[in-house]
Amino acid sequence: MTKTFALKSAVFDGTSYQLATAEVDEEARILRLSYRKKSFIKTEEVFLGNIAFDEQSSVRSEGQKTILGDTEMEAASSNDAIALTEILTAPLRVALDALREIIAGPMAGFLTTRAETLGLLANLKSDYRRAILRCEKLVPMDSRDPLSDIIRTKAEELERLLGLALTSLDGFFKDKPSESEKAYAFLLALCLMQDAKLAGEEGLDTVLQMLGGLGVFGTSNIKQLPVEEATQGLVKLAVSQPQLFF
User: Fold this and answer.
1) Domain residue limits at 21
2) What angle do CA 207, 208, 211 make, to 5 degrees?
């Protein structure tokens, strides 16, 4: 779908042009910029250039101006400026929604199950009999070693869920692998947080510093929360701010 915007002016490659036109191909994600050159004889449309845009493009608005990278476009009206900015930022919104679904789905599924499993291991140490009874669904009726069966079942489930999370992240970042580090670091940080909780908070401060380095703040209450609640809280934070991992 292509939309055309009449511009009061445009700044392209450092040069200002009056009576410019922005033609945006939403599907190809290309903005074609031109201007009307007037002479005594006629007015002609002069092509300036094609500008590609995607989820990583720098787009901002200032009043009726929309700025894409180094190109500045002043729309004829406020409504046109809003519409142009929305089109140019659409790829980012789509990408953030997709990443939010991965965090809330596969990543959360793995991390929540891992937290539950670590809690189970802790309960097995403190009250073996009660913990085994709570996991009776994981133990075959003819089991001779319930603990081994439980551990094997949970390990297989975690391996499957981790595979789903990593496959989802790999698919999302396939065209931009260099951008994936923060998402994988967040996944690792939450696993380390869970381990630290199981170890009696040892190393938790380092994990919180790691999360802060990723831009994940608001974690001051993590120390007071059980591992499952801490995991859910951090995942909720990430879901609300997927742009942190972009």
Assistant:
1) 2-76
2) 90
